[in-house]
Specification:
Distance between the termini of chain B: 34 Å
CATH topology of chain A: MetI-like fold
Number of helices of chain A: 11
Structural class of chain B: alpha/beta
CATH architecture of chain A: Orthogonal Bundle
Helix content of chain B: 25-40%
CATH superfamily of chain A: MetI-like
Radius of gyration of chain B: 17 Å
Number of strands of chain B: 9
CATH architecture of the largest domain in chain B: 3-Layer(aba) Sandwich
Strand order of the largest sheet of chain B: 5-6-7-3-8-9
Number of domains of chain B: 2
Oligomer: heterodimer
CATH class of chain A: Mainly Alpha
Helix content of chain A: over 70%
Largest interface: A-B, 22 and 26 residues
Structural class of chain A: mainly alpha
């Protein structure tokens, strides 16, 4: 019996593209500010030509990567440390969950007040929003691991850094990489929103806001598609990293 | 203190509500702990391994013990191959690869673990094979005492019988002390030289016999303890 063939992964994006092309050619599409593919490509080419698109991308990416980087390093380290102490983690978890549930965009004004209207506040807001996506899964992965593993490592006489390398790091690694992917997605969103709020001169958020104010839907679409592509590329890189580093079946 | 006792429990309570247990295990002696579920057998074994502090009493134990936990499956590190899992206790010793492989080979052949499994990841193995890996790992410690918590429970009848023989011979040649928890009469008769029943309300030692008394008393003790 032949195995059922699964539809190609190209089907869904092609369907979306077809839908867009069809919508942009109708009166309804024009009435709802849906540009044609050609208009968006031209907007991208214009932005690439005068260098503004690249600069905006680089600025947003720098903020997102800096914030996500801080959250992966600090959230990952704290998650590994707390998860290795299940009793402590159970005491801290509800608070960590509460802090994570606070919308980072509401924390941003607090950071502006505390840290000033500067780049540091934006990166701090991004890091705050991405932090929980790393800390919680990493700590939970370690805390719910079978106790027998820690017992055996302890009996083997592995302590400190050796125990960390033999047990805690591999135990938390799959969650750390998954957390990093979620953190990057959250970081991009928050970076763009902080750029739309106050003080930024460049970035995809600034570009989107300008396109809206100048009524340039094709530029707006260009920003939307580009940010999706950036996120997909970063996520793909982390999936590739996960395949290299995590060769076992977690669980 | 009794001279020569390798493991010595004096008035040890596994947990606060448990009765105090006094037990001495000499070199070469193999003691089966029997008793109903929840009476504290595994907790006593964990205390003998140094993994938990007893609620009361004093405990003397060797610095190193080979231990097979009840959760043998969970005790295998899924990111290490079978060989690396068996060799885990050797890590702090910084042996050469040759020395390490020799000790792993001795343990693996003692439990008849097929060498074709050594390069596999443990989650690819059957439950019985995983348990053999956990037993082999306990043997690489080369410790003077072995603590086995239902260490043969996942094995099929013939593998189980053959492992009993091989483990017994392994412990005999090395004069190892052993404490095992089991609910299986054949395991007790095949592996232990002595059996101890924890019973009563709080798990005090209610019987302490040599295996040489035969199957009958053991069967009635096991059935009595199960109630």
């Amino acid at each position: 019996m032949r195995a059922p063939t699964s539809p190609s992964r190209a089907v869904a994006p092609l369907a979306l593209l077809t839908l867009w092309v069809a919508a942009s050619m109708t009166a309804w599409g024009r009435a709802h500010s849906i540009p044609t593919v050609l208009e968006v490509v031209r907007a991208a080419a214009d932005g690439a030509g005068d260098g503004t698109l690249l600069r905006d991308c680089v600025d947003t990416l720098a903020r997102a990567l800096a914030g996500a980087g801080v959250s992966v390093v600090v959230g990952g380290a704290l998650g590994l440390w707390l998860g290795a102490r299940p009793a402590l983690w159970h005491a801290v978890e509800p608070t960590a969950d509460f802090v994570r549930s606070i919308p980072p965009i509401l924390v941003y004004p607090l950071l502006l007040l505390g840290l000033g209207y500067n780049e540091g506040s934006r990166v701090a807001a991004v890091a705050f929003g991405a932090f929980g996506a790393v800390l919680l899964p990493v700590a939970a992965a370690l805390a719910r691991a079978p106790a027998a593993r820690a017992d055996v490592v302890r009996l083997a006489g592995l302590r400190g850094y050796e125990a960390f390398r033999a047990l805690h790091l591999p135990e938390g690694l799959p969650a750390l990489i998954t957390g990093a992917r979620l953190a990057l997605t959250a970081a991009l969103v928050i970076a763009v929103v902080t750029e739309m709020l106050v003080g930024s001169r460049h970035g995809l958020g600034v570009r989107a806001l300008a396109a809206l104010q100048e009524y340039r839907p094709e530029r707006l679409w260009c920003v939307v598609l580009l940010s999706g592509a950036i996120n997909a590329a970063l996520s793909g890189a982390l999936v590739a990293l996960e395949r290299r580093l995590v060769r076992w079946e977690p669980g | 203190m009794t001279a020569g006792a390798l493991i010595e429990l004096t008035g040890v309570r596994a947990f606060a509500a448990a009765a105090p247990v006094t037990l001495r295990v000499q070199r070469g002696e193999r003691v089966a702990l029997l008793g109903r579920n929840g009476i504290g057998k595994s907790t006593l074994l964990r205390a003998m391994a140094g993994l938990t502090r007893p609620a009361a009493g004093s405990l003397r134990r060797p610095a190193a013990v080979g231990y097979v936990p009840q959760d043998y499956r969970g005790s295998l590190l899924p990111w290490l191959s079978v060989l690396e899992n068996v060799a885990l206790p050797l890590r702090p010793l910084r042996l050469t690869r040759g020395e390490r492989d020799a000790r792993v080979d001795a343990a693996v052949s003692a439990v008849s673990l097929p060498s074709s499994l050594l390069d596999k990841m443990p989650q690819r193995l059957s439950g019985g094979e995983q348990q053999l890996v956990a037993v082999a790992r306990a043997l690489t410690w080369q410790a003077p005492a072995l603590l086995l918590d239902e260490a043969l429970s996942a094995l099929d009848g013939s593998t189980r019988a053959s492992l009993r023989g091989r483990l017994g011979a392994f412990m005999d040649t090395r004069d190892l002390a052993c404490v095992l928890v089991s609910h299986d009469i054949d395991d007790v008769l095949g592996l232990a030289t002595r059996w101890v029943v924890l019973g009563g309300v709080a798990g005090e030692v209610v019987r302490d016999e040599r295996t040489s008394v035969g199957r009958g008393p053991l069967e009635s003790a096991v059935h009595g303890a199960a109630q």
